[in-house]
Amino acid sequence: MQPAWVRRPASLAKAVTAELVERIVSGTHAPGTSLPAEPVLCEAFSVSRTVVREAVKLLEAKGLVQVRQGAGTIVTQPTSWDMLDELVLGATIAQDESLAILDDVVVTRRLLESDMANVAARVASEETLERLRALVDKMDELVDDHVTYADHDRAFHDVIMLASGNRIARGVVRSLESQVINTARYMGTPERALCVESNRGHRRIYERIAARDPGGAATAMFNHITEAWLVRRRAPEAPVRLER
Hints:
244 residues
């Protein structure tokens, strides 16, 4: 049976790229080594040289390889990889059994979102405050429906990010969130008690924003994101990355 990418000509280069990203992240093609030669990749994926060359360009744009004249295509060190790239981050999360990459996602989220909460407490309109209050009240009613609760949870955070006006920070957080939203190790096991405790954190954030308390809002957001992750994390080792 032919590989899936052969049956979808329009996505040849992207499909080959996705497979090579997984192989690089998993260590099949280790940093410092060369990717197989072009003819070998053409045969392995049953594609043309044009497709392979396009895939290599995409890998280079993601920081995973470097094309060196006379030396071939060299796999770069992980420090050079674009960790905000959908394929790279997704493959890294899938390969990381230590939860370190998810810890880093949480650290990045709480850093950016606590700052945005700080700004929101200073500039949020009355309409925004009413929206936050309505979301918190509604989530109290949704603690037995974790799917709908999660939708409102994301909306609550997004209202604060929008209020801050920081489009770059919001873009980073939303990009990270899109990669972990369907990851069981990040989302944890849905439980009523977790939703109840989570919304207590949301209410503290709302109250500090409504009180026009920037420092209190930032602290409430920082603590909420940290505590919610520690409950979902359920790992025996100490989360060193989260210590501050």
